[in-house]
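Example 271, ligand 3-hydroxybutanoyl-coenzyme A.
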Amino acid sequence: MVAASTGHSVTLVDTSDDILKKAVKGIEGSLKRVVKKKFADKPEAGEEFVQKVLQNVSTSTDAGSAAQGADLVLEAIVENLKIKQDLFSGLDKLAPAHTIFASNTSSLPISDIASSTNRLDRFGGLHFFNPVPMMKLVEVIGTSATSQETFDSLLNFSKMLGKTPVSCKDTPGFIVNRLLVPYIVEAIRLHERGHGSKEDIDIAMKLGAGYPMGPFELSDYVGLDTMKFIMDGWNEKDPDNPLFAPSEMVNKLVAEGKYGKKTGEGFYKYK
Ligand code: 3HC
């Protein structure tokens, strides 16, 4: 949506036409939300903008053929190293030589994902934040093998999207998640110890620290499955770090399929 809104031609790839249809509907809904304010006194111009942006988005279930015509491949699939590596290793054989590959991974090392390809110099990370149309930040990640030219292209692309990029090393969680995820899990631990209700902790961090959402609201928003995946991965690599220790409460909720907003229930219930 953001790339299409800034004049880029985008092919959105997913595993089924049904999911793609839902995704395009989601983009349309989100665009309408943005346009409502931006074109408040010119609704017709707003509708024209929505249609123009949607024309920049085509969809496909064939990642290989989509990559053949792409300058940039941005992957945002499931947080599973093997699945990401398989995808990129296949695309590496099909995409033109100049095509840059980037991952939107929340927590996996970019160099591990890139190792499945023969374009280590044209591989980096572009990490966006939810909700992407509103959040201004993009983390741009370079590995030790990413060329300066590739890194500069990713920085420039982020600016062309109207975002503010920051440069990150390929370290666990980059900048934001390395600080945000341990903070959220510390809040959950505080609650597990009986030292504060979810509601009070959320209110405290909103009104006392100026955060737009409290840690429980935010983890429901990000998804408890994603949070758990990030924590488990770091815990496996650095088991002595108490910041990465698992939370029983999160494990239980995830085991019950309560992932947060997207499943209708996490720490809180949603309609
Ligand atoms: N698409 C388009 N616009 C959206 C939107 C969406 N999905 N979600 C919200 N908006 C817009 C609304 O239209 C509204 O625009 P307006 O101010 O121009 O009218 C604006 O955002 C505010 O929305 P609301 O009034 O509905 O609600 P809030 O004022 O509470 O803002 C929020 C919602 C922007 C989500 C805010 O609560 C927020 O910033 N929360 C924190 C989000 C955050 O921390 N994200 C990072 C998560 S970590 C992550 O993503 C990394 C990953 O790797 C895990």
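Summary: The chain has a mean pLDDT of 97.
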